[in-house]
Amino acid sequence: MAVVQISRIQIRRGQKNVGSGIPQLAGGELGWAVDSQELYIGNGAVSEGSPAVGNSKIITEHDNLFELASTYTYKTSSSVQTGSSATSPITRTLQKRLDETVTVQSFGALGDGTDQTAQLQRAVDQLYLNASTKGTVPSRVVLELQPGTYTITNTIHIPPHATLIGAGSDKTIIHQTGEFPIFKTVNSLSTPGSPAADSGSSLTNQARKIILRGMTLKINTLEKTGLDLVTCRESLFEDLNIEGPWISTSATVADAIGIKMSSLSSLVGTLQNTFRNIKVTGFSYAVKSDDDCNDNLFDKCTFETNDYGIVFGKDTVLGSQSQSTGPSRNNVTNSLFRYINQHGLWYENGQFNHSEGNKFIDVGNEGGGDTTPFFTIINTRQAGNSSTEDFFERKRRLMYDAGYTSIAYKSETEGELDSKDSSTHNLNIIQTGTYTTLFRLPGDASRSFAIEYTYKSSTIDALRSGTISLVVDSSNNAVSLDDEFTYSGSPSNQTNLQFRANYLDVNGDTTVDTVAIQVLNSTTNDQGYLHFKVSNVT
Question: Could you tell me the domains of the chain?
């Protein structure tokens, strides 16, 4: 008959919270606290090599690691001193350390392409509209959105002081599949799940100090808005791609707006916001505002494949609460407008809006290129708006490109606009016994031009610098030219160079449309050159 021996090993056990608690255990001896479900082991004696007599706690499934890690100290190197002395470091709980940053994943938004509307809105509401922390400075944390596609079926409402940072455009994608704006700003009267009406907005509660950065906002529905800024001030929008479904053959749709800006009043409005490195594609209007939205900056942006670029004051009703002047004092700088069917900039109402250093390529051509210029590139109806150092691809083509001589010169600008050319043009001037067209200017509207030029002959010692003043009177099909210059060289050659203007019908439709600046050069065998810049006031 087989003999079976059953042995068991037992360790010391007792209750931690009764009597004297856990006794001093011998070196290597285990002790189990039955009441707290904690396990300890004796350190051993100092004589055995132990750094100190006592018991060490062994971590088990019953322990809360965050409670145990309550003495986090920043230690990037041994030389860092976080406290007032090297022996008194600053300690923090691991919970507080981890809570310094928050991601949408903590609210269940995984960016896996599924509907994340509830999760995203919950994250925004709990961080910025939580009743216990709302309005406090410590609550104004950064909400991070990891790379991925976050599908939404309704608008995400953004309250004051919200900061949403993605991993970058085309990395973090917010995809709106419903018939709603993607993001819409709201005031601080909003509560979780209940965005407040704009009618209650004031200077103290309106949407403000918002940051949206590093994501793509994509919308499926042609009739809807990408970013809806409602009475929003002093906010930053940066590194965003805003994409809609509009294509060059689509009709103009009133609500198909990439960035819509509205105000409650001229005082409580969408003011002093910065848009930097924003790309807007696929909308009827890349940017549109009819209200008193003032002092906003668009810098280093791209507006591509839209019906219109930036449109201010198109449907403004002057005298209403939020439309005393229309959008004013807004700046558009260092930006690219490309493949815009109609106007790149349209200021129907509003003053002192300024365009500077922008590039306009294939704008106003209804998708047909510079051979079919239908619309002006900048259209403004009130005095005080301006364009400085802007580049127009149309001007390079229609001014003196030999392949465009039969194309009527539709002007780059229209209306009450002060415009100064960004480019210095360079043309050769050869000997000619008759007046020959040197370059062309638009004749589709009454305006005046100032042409600043410098001429240097190749065969004689002659240098001439001057300004040609040109006045176009389209109502009477008349043009006048005056040339004032300073000349250096032989007096006998001072008048060798003569300019005149001719009003032409270049496309044969019986309507004069283009002004030809013509030159007569009697300097024998001359191969001189002309540098010039053009400014105009419509």
Answer: 101-418 (2.160.20.10), 425-537 (2.60.40.1680)
